[in-house]
Design goal:
mainly beta, seven-stranded mixed beta sheet, 1 helix, 51% strand, enzyme activator activity, lipid transporter activity
Length: 164
């Protein structure tokens, strides 16, 4: 277990969307299992379609960090239209799933400017059919969200996974 959970904003100071706080437990994250997340985000600008998200996912192999490819929309993927993906997951017009609903956190574009916070909430991580080399270990993720070439947000995460 190296390092443990960590996060940071990696965008420029002028990025309109900034992660203020994020905590995740347990550490390492257990799959399947329960994950407790609390977070706060502030946005000085409405995030509207098309929202592009670029993920770079790396896994530690000894002292090396290996970039994982994008396979079946998982891994180091570029999502050109996050808004449409959200609409496909949660049909527009239906209420947002809990705990988002309780805390007034939107689940569809556009995301209005403002501050959003999620008090400590539990999420169930299901058993996922992943090759073992993709589960146990230490990971780094860089996620950047942009619209029309303008970066809106950039966050780096580091975490460990442990599958049962």
């Amino acid at each position: 277990q190296v390092g443990g959970f960590a996060w940071e904003n990696c965008g420029e100071k002028k990025n309109p969307v900034v992660l203020q706080s994020l905590s995740v437990a347990p550490d390492p994250i257990s799959i399947p299992g329960s994950l407790r997340i609390s977070a706060a985000v502030s946005s000085s600008k409405t995030m509207a379609s098309p929202l592009k998200a670029v993920l770079v996912v790396e896994k530690a192999l000894g002292d090396l960090w290996i970039q994982l490819p994008c396979i079946d929309q998982l891994g180091s993927c570029t999502y050109n239209d996050v808004c449409t993906i959200l609409d496909n997951l949660i049909p527009p017009g239906t209420t947002c799933p809990e705990p988002l609903l309780t805390y007034g956190i939107p689940c569809h574009c556009p995301f209005k400017a403002g501050s959003y916070s999620l008090p400590a909430s539990d999420f169930d991580l299901p058993e996922v059919e992943l090759p073992t080399w993709m589960t146990n270990g230490n990971y780094r993720v860089r996620a950047a969200v942009s619209n029309g070439g303008e970066e809106l947000a950039c966050v780096k995460l580091a975490f460990s996974l442990q599958s049962q």
